[in-house]
Design a protein that fits this description.
binds adenosine-5'-diphosphate, binds magnesium ion, Four Helix Bundle (Hemerythrin (Met), subunit A), rod-shaped, Heat Shock Protein 90, alpha+beta
């Protein structure tokens, strides 16, 4: 049922989360407002009617007294032969107004108000007032019959009628006055009750509106604080990212620089290295020629001279040493070439696009570049590199970035071994494996100082470093994490203990997952 309702009602009617409380408060505010306004309007108009009724029933008291008074005035006037028209008119008017109002209160009708203007009074609904009106009628109706002949007979009033009216008035006037009084009081009570109800409604509405306002205020303040904190966090995150970007940019330019140098070196070495075998060949040929000359062509008188020269330059030594010199030059230039190639593989010429690469070749190129670091400290043994490479297919990856990640982990491993004094056999082992046929695992382990448990959660945080100022930036592993997890959709795990050392396991897919 609810689901159907939600289907029918457009989604936008369910206010979006963040602003829900504001819309809800506004709706509640409207409800409270209407809840106060409507009863206020109704009760106010009832109070207006109440005021008219109280006024008119108050007038009834006065009229009942006036009727009695004018009857008595008429009796005195008739006895003393005074003019009777004035009290007769006053009686007629009082009679008419009293009668009209009594009927009005009973059945509801327009009557003449205190100010002489017509005013509508509704029929009384209250049972007690209705009873009082019935009692009043019971007294008034016979009274009416006794007054009517006095009003209708102009100039000459029948004495009998006057006597009857006075007798009736003496007997019932006070009771009629009392009934009118009760009606007025009862109506006042009703009006007071209404005023009280209105006060309660207004106070409750105001209190609810205030509660609503404070809830909204509290909620808004809470939300503002949360947003402020989020903005602050985002700002810090942006700052960190900026620094990481700068660091990456630096690495990228460094890669380009390395690529440039490698290219230049390669050009220079290409002048020497390919020529060495020819040089070797030429020298061998020349030496053979010298030997032949030695044997057959020189005359006897020259022989002594040649012997002296041969002795002087130590031809035998030259013959045995020259091939060695050339061999050693060959070894030197071929090592330079290897380094240049490694530099080029490592830098991947600043490539940023996806490439299929032999991951082992990349790791080897990094090891070649780091070669000098493996035996920096003269008083401790050189770091041994143990490679356990599996048969791996070519890997699709951002090669330059991946190399940077491996470089970061390997330099940390070297630092960890350097920091740990007296390691008997400092080692870094690199293991590769194919897992689940579409992932490869690269594990880089060292037997260095290890990472204390409390730091293990923080090593991937930007700027977390335990190294002295100037040595550590705390960016290496955070950038590595980005490269592996975010850019290659891979995983990176760290296992470490101060006794055994540290192992980083990296898993990346064979093909880039976009
Ligand atoms: N192989 C490791 N052995 C011991 N500690 C390590 C190793 N690798 C990383 N760490 C710890 O992780 C921290 C963060 O490393 P990293 O992000 O590369 O920054 P940095 O090397 O500049 O300190 C290092 O300061 C170090 O405490
Ligand atoms: Mg580092």
């Amino acid at each position: 049922m609810i689901a159907k309702f939600q289907q029918i009602v457009p989604k936008y009617l369910f206010f979006p989360g963040k602003y829900r409380i504001i819309f809800l408060s506004a709706a509640l505010f409207l409800c409270f407002d209407l809840g106060v306004l409507l009863p206020n309007f109704l009760i106010s108009s009832q109070l207006k009617e109440d005021a008219i009724i109280i006024n008119l029933s108050g007038r009834q008291r006065m009229l009942s007294q006036r009727i009695s008074k004018t009857i008595l005035q008429l009796q005195i006037a008739t006895q003393t032969a005074q003019t009777i028209t004035i009290p007769q008119d006053e009686l007629a008017q009082a009679y008419k107004q009293f009668d009209q109002t009594l009927i009005g209160l009973k059945i509801g009708k327009t009557v003449t108000g205190s100010d002489g203007k017509p005013v509508f009074i509704p029929a009384m609904q209250n049972t007690k007032i209705k009873n009082l009106l019935t009692q009043s009628e019971a007294i008034w109706n016979p009274y009416k019959l006794k007054i009517e002949p006095i009003i209708s007979s102009r100039n000459k009033i029948p004495q009998q009628s006057l006597q009857d009216a006075i007798a009736y008035s003496n007997k019932n006037n006070l009771q009629l006055l009392n009934l009118m009084n009760q009606i007025t009081t009862e109506q006042q009570n009703i009006s007071n009750n209404r005023t009280y109800t209105l006060q309660i409604i207004q106070t409750a509405g105001l209190c609810l509106a205030l509660i609503n306002f404070f809830i909204l205020l509290f909620h808004t303040l809470k939300n503002l604080t949360i947003s402020d904190n989020k903005i602050q966090e985002a700002l810090e995150e942006i700052e960190k990212t900026q620094i990481q970007l700068i660091q990456k940019e630096k690495m990228c330019s460094l890669g380009q620089l390395v690529a440039g140098i490698a290219h230049e070196l390669n050009n220079s070495i290409n002048f020497i290295h390919p020529n060495l075998p020819h040089l070797h060949q030429y020298m061998t040929d020349l030496l053979q020629l010298v030997e032949l000359y030695e044997k057959y062509h020189f005359k006897v008188d020259k022989e002594i001279e040649i012997k002296i020269l041969t002795k002087l330059i130590d031809l035998d030594f030259i013959k045995s040493d020259l091939p060695k010199v050339i061999k050693s030059m060959e070894i030197g230039t071929s090592r330079s070439r290897d380094i240049v190639l490694s530099l080029r593989t490592f830098s991947h010429l600043g490539e940023t696009e996806i490439k299929k690469v032999d991951i082992h070749k990349n790791i080897d190129s990094i090891l070649m570049i780091l070669h000098s670091q493996f035996h920096k400290q003269l008083d401790s043994p050189a770091i041994e590199i143990i490679k356990k490479y599996d048969d791996l297919p070519l890997i699709e990856c951002y090669a330059a970035k991946l190399n940077q990640a491996f470089l970061n982990i390997l330099t940390n491993a070297i630092d960890a071994l350097e920091t740990k004094q007296l390691v008997e056999n400092p080692q870094i082992s690199i293991t590769t494996k194919l897992v689940e046929s579409n992932f490869i695992l690269i594990a880089i382990a060292d037997n260095g100082i290890g990472i204390p448990k409390e730091n293990q959660q923080r090593i991937f945080d930007p700027f977390f470093t335990t190294k002295p100022v100037g040595k550590g930036t705390g960016l290496g592993l955070s950038i590595t994490y980005q490269i592996i997890v975010e850019e290659h959709k891979g995983k990176i795990r760290c296992f470490s203990s101060p006794e055994k050392g540290t192992e980083f396991q990296i898993e990346i897919p064979i093909q880039v997952i976009s």
